[in-house]
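I hope you will forgive my troubling you with a question about protein structure. The matter concerns a single protein, recorded as an amino acid sequence and a row of backbone structure tokens. Please examine both parts with care and let me know of anything in them that strikes you as inconsistent. Here, with my thanks, is the record as I have it:
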Amino acid sequence: MEKHLFLELFGYAASLVIAVSLMMSSLLRLRCINLMGATSFAIYGLLIHAYPVAVLNSLIVCVNIYHLRRMLRAKKYYQLLPLRPDSDFLAYFLEFYRADIKRILPDFKYQMVANQVTLFILHDCEPVGVFIAEQKAGGVLRVTLDFVIPNYRDLHIGRFLFVEQSEYFRELGIKEIAITPRTKEFGMYLVEVGFEPTDIRTGALRIWVAG
């Protein structure tokens, strides 16, 4: 492959990575992918002797590293807020994020049921997630909806809810939390949190509430 063609393809690839980064709904992912794109563009600028391009993208690399260090070092504090199943604000929250919820759970339709557990997950008094489940016999809590707004979709919030808050669920008489993820990505996320498979055919998962 000729050097000129290689450099041209390298430049296009760097541009594509930066474009992809801007499509990320998660700020953390945006910073990580943009860092890779800016690094590639800085190298590209050096290779073609376009030093202003190299300098500008080197500065972008530094900015991304700075913000990533702050994001990864920052301690996130969450808390649970129990809700009435007929809460007006719950209805408003579900309607506001209806399109995003439907994208993840196309068949989801909120219906109040007996023995329902309904929680908001708060970050600095801001609701960043909603958890809706039905308590079944035998101490099983079957999840209907576990939705988190885009900028907070990471392992921190999952571990907070399903691991750190085990005492809260235990006080409700819950022994295990069961969920059937609708996407492979969500299933992999739950396994990282600590869930284990219970039914290979349906993809059902569960996590034991620590005693």
Remarks:
- The first strand starts at residue 78 and ends at 82.
